[in-house]
Amino acid sequence: MERQPNQRLADLIDEVGISHLALAKRICRVAEEWRESVRPAHTQVGRWIAGQQPRGATPALIAEALSRKLGRRVTLADIGMAGTTTSPEVGLSFSHTTEDLIETVIELWTADLQRRKFLLGSVDVTALTHPAFEWLLASAASPRAREGRRQVGMSDVEAIRSTSAMFAGLDNRFGGAHSRTAAVQYLSDQVTPLLSGSYSSSIAAALFSAVAEFNLSVAWMAYDSGLHGLSRRYFLQALALAHHAGDRLFGASTLSAMSHQANYLGEHRHALNLARAASHGIQHHDEPLLEAQFAAMQARAAAAMPNAADECLDALGIAEAAWERHRAGEEPEWISYFDESELADEFAHCFRDLGQPARSHEYATQCLAAGDEEYARSRTFSRIVLATSLLDQGEVEEACTVATRTLPRVQETASVRCTTYLRDFHVRARPYATHPAVTAFTEQARPLLEGHHLPGHRPTSPSDQ
Question: Which among 363, 365, 343, 364 has a CA at the least distance from the CA of 293?
């Protein structure tokens, strides 16, 4: 059969305004990130336009390269290559029908368990923009009944919630890498037949909400493990699941979690926009604890941006005022973790980034005095922030004492974030490298700083994360 020219691809390349050589180079960069052995030359771009269908992951690489250049999500259909591959785009869309959503999350869980290489690649933050915008503008979804082989009831939903809580507890105690694969295996083995089963509209709402919470927990586990591209896929599907559950509040909370990750990765402007979207998404709901948490995320992003100190302080004021309005026990159960200790921790992080170590020390101390060890990993972060505040005030020996006390906790935690906090403290201590306390800390922390304790992770620097 005579090949038909791929006009869709040609039109997109024209819209982007780049040469075939420039596109080929962009595809090679994406392929390197995704660990795919695809290195097209500019001549192959011409062949694709002429109608040749590339194989394997190449169509998805083309779509990703064009997405990054255009600043919007480009699908395989947009480039005239739909159906040419089992898409490495999996999890990067916002499904508008429940059947598409079910198919997407099952495909994501399956690809994750199969350890598909493309899942290890980065996902540009712009991939979050369009789904977040769609969620923000979408009307509230009405969960729908479904007919399937297996009858699903509330006991099934409660089993999902209990299991999700168990894995969240393991994550908090031992880090994201400890049991993430087991959590995904549960989703694949136990939740897949439920999503494909038979249920009423009320059960559908509860089911999709429970799976959204579970997916969000897995997203946090991947984030904590340094698997940021994979984490973003789970975050986006948690957002879509919350939407189809009719759970507007949880959808907004998912955007806030996406903001947290973007800020950690240094994408502060995007982090600020995601936190603002979360706040905007609940503007017609009286949920002061959520308002406080979302404002704190805005403050965290602004604190790390140049010339945004006033915006940070304004957001902290909003967070504090909203906290004062909230009444314990009236909030959704999944946000009840955000207590006085967590709020103080956000303030401590913000003042650290604003270069106000005395105030950071005040709030870090308040956080640790108010908190318990249920969220042990979070308190490890808080202690390292406390150590940093002491270091930045010239209290080198006390700072190293506090930091050294975190080492056993970091040692037993499969958490890339914990080691990144530790490395940040180590970098900040370099001006005092000859101080005996710094020398002693560095020697004790060396195996952790080099990443030898993390299963399956190569040594990295903070900038790698």
Answer: 343
Q: Considering only CA atoms, give the Rg of the chain.
A: 23
> Using 50, 70 and 90 to split pLDDT, how confident is the model at 61?
confident
DSSP lists the bridge partners of residue 151 as 198
Please report, to the nearest 10 degrees, the dihedral formed by the alpha carbons of residues 311, 314, 315, 317 taken in order.
Answer: 160
284-314 tens-digit pLDDT: 899 999 999 999 999 999 999 999 999 999 9
Q: Does position 321 have pLDDT exceeding 70, yes or no?
A: yes
Q: What does the pLDDT average to over 158-168?
A: 96
CA–CA distance, 157 with 343 (Å, rounded to integer): 31
SS3 label, residue 181: helix
**How many residues are there in the chain?**
465
Integer angstrom CA distances of residue 93 from 12, 78, 143, 251: 19, 13, 19, 15
Per-residue CA distances from 296 to 164, 202, 288, 304, 388 (Å): 26, 33, 12, 13, 20
Answer for the pair 35, 227: CB distance below 8 angstroms, yes or no.
no
- Beta-bridged to residue 198, according to DSSP, are 151
Q: Is the pLDDT of residue 140 over 90?
A: no
Q: Tell which residue, 73, 76, 61, has the closest CA to residue 23.
A: 61
43 touches 49 (CB < 8 A): no
Tell me, what amino acid is at 3? R
CB of 215 closer than 8 Å to CB of 264: no
Average pLDDT over the chain, rounded to an integer: 90
How do the domains of the chain map onto residue ranges? 7-70, 90-246
End-to-end CA distance of the chain: 48
- How far is the C-alpha of 434 from the C-alpha of 394, rounded, in Å? 14
Given a cut of 50, whether residue 461 has pLDDT beyond it is no
C-alpha–C-alpha distance, residues 384 and 262, integer Å? 20
DSSP assignment string, 372-438: -GGGHHHHHHHHHHHHHHHHHTT-HHHHHHHHHHTHHHHHT---HHHHHHHHHHHHHTGGGTTSHHH
Instruction: Give yes or no for residue 453 having a pLDDT over 70.
Output: no
Residues 6+ apart with CB under 8 A from 437: 396, 397, 399, 400, 401
> Average of pLDDT values for 422-429?
96
Q: Residue 455 pLDDT more than 50? A: no
Could you give the 3-state DSSP secondary structure of residue 60?
helix
The DSSP output letter for 121 is: S
CB 91 within 8 A of CB 236: yes
